[in-house]
Write a structure and sequence with these properties.
With 168 residues, the protein is of the alpha/beta class. The protein has five helices and five strands, in the order βββαβαβααα. The chain has one domain: Ribonuclease H-like superfamily/Ribonuclease H (Nucleotidyltransferase, domain 5, 2-Layer Sandwich).
């Protein structure tokens, strides 16, 4: 299974492509980074940059699915609206490439990688580094979050598959 994890943001949209090796050797990071958005650019140009960047990743890495962070409640309505725009663009890019999108709450993502739903950003970065056997912490933190989202989906899918197999 190959997953593109996307951490949508107004300044940085993190991405990470993670593959679960079919030979049982574990998880492998194929790509990681962030699409940096100039906050002074008009919103439509920033959204186009996110779309173009994600579309390029989808063509290059051929993931099986796209995983994003679920909507969370924000005190700042303007920030939440901008985040919603970026999420919509990420979902559209996936749909235009024939891929399903799954969403996970921040609590679920942190639990899946750090074992604790209230883990701090640096704890998530460190666990992602360990789980993927990376040489250094993924930067920026949005990139580590995107990898964590992909890992969360891989773990969740594996658990659901085991449950399905047991029921048969």
């Amino acid at each position: 299974m190959r997953v593109l994890g996307v951490d949508c943001g107004g300044e940085y949209t993190g991405f990470g492509v993670v593959e679960d090796e079919s030979d049982g050797s574990g998880l492998r990071c194929l790509a990681v980074g962030a699409i940096r958005l100039a906050t002074k650019e008009p919103l439509e140009l920033r959204l186009k940059k996110v779309y173009d960047g994600l579309a390029e990743l989808l063509v290059e890495h051929h993931p099986d699915i796209v995983a994003i962070e679920d909507v969370f409640y924000s005190v700042n309505a303007k920030s939440a609206l901008k985040l919603g725009h970026v999420r919509g663009v990420a979902m559209m890019a996936a749909a235009q490439h024939g891929l399903a999108v799954v969403a996970y709450s921040p609590l679920s993502v942190k639990s899946a990688v750090a074992g604790y739903g209230r883990a701090e950003k640096h704890q998530v970065q460190e666990m992602v580094t360990r789980l993927l056997k990376l040489d250094k912490l993924p930067q920026p933190a949005d990139a580590a979050d995107a990898l964590a989202i992909a890992i969360c989906h891989i773990h969740t899918a594996a658990t659901l598959q085991r449950q399905f197999t047991k029921q048969r």
